[in-house]
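Dear support,

Our group has been running a series of protein-ligand predictions, and this particular one with L-homoserine is the one our PI (initials K.S.) wants archived with full inputs and outputs. We had some confusion internally about which version of the output was final, so please treat the block below as the authoritative record. The input we submitted was:
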Amino acid sequence: MGEVKLSIFGFGNVGRATARVLLEKERVFKEKYGVSFKVVSISDRSGTVWLPEGMDLREVLNVKEAFGRLSAWSNDYEVYEFSPMEAVKEIDADIVIDVTNDKNAWEWHMEALKRGRAVVTSNKPPLAFHYAELTAEAGRRELPYLFEATVMAGTPIIGLLRETLLADSIEGIEGVLNGTTTYILTKMEEGVPLEEALKGAQRLGIAEHDPSGDILGFDAGYKATILHCLAFEPITFDEIEIRGIDGLPLEDVQRVRKEGKTLRLVASIERGSVSVEPKELPKESPLAVSSTQNAALIKTDLLGELLIRGAGAGLKETASGVVSDVITATIRLRGG
Ligand code: HSE
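Confirmed final output from the archive:
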């Protein structure tokens, strides 16, 4: 396989961070893995730039940063008004990368697989609602369908459950899986009200496009659903229990802190049961993370307790998961 053709959907914070990693580490990837990439299309909300010969990522990043939309490039290139489904059908790519937050993206993920394309995604709802269909279709077609960045950004909990802990039976997982709520709760402990703390999370680029997804616990719920699917069997987001951090009084968060504990939005995952709710944790608990960190305690029959902890949100941190999956998909497509 020569150059691997990539089609990128979504050119917001994560999409641009992904493009930057592909650009800045091009030589490293070539030397270390013998892979080189050609980005043949990038789509944002304004349109799709499509160049079958591959585009200059430096230039496309400059356009987006200067004008805020890809359609501004129309002086130099044709910009197409494709829906994602049309773009998947039209554009010849080896790997489709979904870094959007399109809730209906599972339909075009399916189409991409049917057309023989691998899929790499950081978009959670397709998996939280359609894990079984998507992974079955990929399995039938022997195509990579990879989603490391959906949970804990690039911190490799998906790879751990999917590829590494193969002899173990998982007994349960408890995790703090949403960076925005941890960031907000950390600030609330210092006396900053929720709305103001949320603005800080938005400035860091870690909150969802619609931040109510973080505050109400949906984002952590999507992630917990995906972990259940991997650790046990497929379920959907509709089957889980969620309570977010909305309505938590500032005084309560500070009181818990004064008592030597800390409030965190905790996901508890056992076979057939997933819940997300704010919980008081002892300060020394391995789940008492701060800022944008995530942590998960995995209990297995053979290993006992295993802790995985690291960045759970952030731009380059999420791009780490996306680009690692792109490299894995490439190696697998080559038969490695
Ligand atoms: N909004 C998410 C979070 C981004 O705060 O964890 C990473 O999935």
